Amino acid sequence: MCCILDIFVQIASFFIGLLVQVWTYIWSSWSSGEIIFAERVEERGMATSTISQSASPSDFDDCACLDDKYINKYMNLITIRSGNNVYVFDTFFFTALSEKGYSRVHRWTKNIDIFSKQKLMIPIYIKEENCWCLVLIDMTKNVLKYYDKSGKYDPKHIRLIVKYLKLEHVMRKGEFLKTQFTESPIKIFNSDVGILDCGLFICVIAEHLSRNARLLFTLKDMRRFHKQILCDLTCDSITCLNSSYTTNSTNTK
Question: Is-contact 225 246, C-beta < 8 A?
């Protein structure tokens, strides 16, 4: 009886100690402003993943910009094709995290071990500029890369994502994340990209990154990529977005 009581006390002490550590970490981060618990801002009319995944072929037209409905379904196709190596978050994830904090999104990955993935990708909608960017978390190289069509970079986005990863690791694994990430803003195009659809841009980037393809495409490839992505969405399957540079190089060999 005494042995059973001792074991119970040890187990209880362990979980109490862990709970104290977690709340100490959360409180210190919140007090220093590192974790954002903001009030809900006005809705921007984004569809949720439930609506996006039910999109039918007739929803996709040749002239449309790729909004969250298109992006969500395409990113889901990337995740499915990649097996257990890559996970792409919902387009509404980062907005929910930044507006409501970790408590709003901690259940979104309750059945997914994101730390077992090689790569994580998070689409980010920037309301002030009405555009999209993409953050790659390369777990094999401990690096975060920020992809924006204009080459811009917002370190606040990266800091928030790192805080999310730390809290998620504590809650799922029961220990603090020891990984130190390096940050790297990436610029793809040197010419004017004002006419380029940013939704199309992050879809093309995500497709290449998911299969470790080199980013050799140019602005001239984007119209063809747009048609190919719409075709993939209609067929509910995904194909490789090969640039004209890659195709020409292959043909000359």
Answer: no
Provide CB contacts within 8 A for 207, sequence distance 6+: 74, 78, 213, 238, 240, 241
pLDDT in tens, 128-165: 888 999 999 999 999 999 999 888 889 999 999 999 99
Is the model's pLDDT at 33 over the cut of 80?
no
- pTM of the predicted structure, to 2 decimals: 0.73
Segment 2-21, tens digit of pLDDT: 556 555 545 555 555 555 45
Three-state helix/strand/coil letters over the chain: CHHHHHHHHHHHHHHHHHHHHHHHHHHHHHHCCCCCCCCCCCCCCCCCHHHHHCCCHHHCCCCCCCCHHHHHHHHHHHHHHCCCCEEECCCCHHHHHHHHCHHHHCCCCCCCCHHHCCEEEEEEEECCCCEEEEEEEECCCCEEEEECCCCCCCHHHHHHHHHHHHHHHHHHHCCCCCCCCEEEEECCCCCCCCCCCHHHHHHHHHHHHHCCCCCCCCHHHHHHHHHHHHHHHHHCCCCCCCCHHHHHHHHCC
Sheet of strand 143-147, all strands in order from the earlier edge strand to the far edge: 86-88, 119-126, 131-138, 143-147, 182-186
pLDDT at 122: 98
